[in-house]
Amino acid sequence: MKKILGAAMSFIFVFMLIGGNDVFAKETSENFSFSLEQGGSFKWMPGMNDLYLFDHPVNDVTIGAMQYTRDGSEVKVMYELIPLSPLGKSSARTLTGMYAKEQGKLYFNNIQRGIYVMKVTNLSQGPVSGNFYAFY
């Protein structure tokens, strides 16, 4: 039942984001899903569902995310773009965005040229499940 509810919420969330939103004019990554225990984190690494951001001198990244707890308590998840190997002379850095809503958007502005992976950390008081899309 939880999987069906999660799939239905994801489907609704995608249509809420698409409706009249110019962020979809940008290149869109795949959908990334996660389920984390309290304090847990997960990093998408090469060979997995890769999230690579590169080949643009300066770039803005928008993360459209939906996250929820089993008991409906407050959700707090941290999203980080972590540089794997900067290209050229760029000084790539880790950027962090946090929010405590069920769904919303995070903005990482002026990302320097480089290759990045996404890390998600659960800072909530219980287990959290969710998914996110990255637009860049």
- CATH class assignment: Mainly Beta
Reading the helices and strands in chain order gives HEEEEEEEE
Structural class given helices, strands, pairing? mainly beta
Rg for CA atoms: 15 Å
Instruction: Name the overall outline.
Output: globular
Strand order of the largest sheet: 1-8-3-6
CATH architecture: Sandwich
Q: What's the main sheet like?
A: 4 strands, antiparallel
Q: Flag low-confidence runs.
A: 11-26, 88-96
The separation of the N and C termini measures 33 Å
What integer is the average pLDDT?
Answer: 66
Beta fraction of the residues? over 45%
Provide the CATH topology: Jelly Rolls
Helix content: 10-25%
Q: How many separate domains?
A: 1
How many helices does DSSP assign? 1
Q: How many DSSP-defined strands? A: 8
Describe this protein's structure.
The chain has 136 residues and is mostly beta strands. The protein has one domain: Jelly Rolls. The protein has one helix and eight strands; from the N terminus they run αββββββββ. The strands form two sheets. A four-stranded antiparallel β-sheet has the order 1-8-3-6, with helices on one face. The chain has a four-stranded antiparallel β-sheet with strand order 2-7-4-5, with no helix packed on it. The chain is globular. The chain starts with a helix and ends with a strand.
Keywords for this entry:
globular, Jelly Rolls, four-stranded antiparallel β-sheet, 136 residues, 1 helix, mainly beta
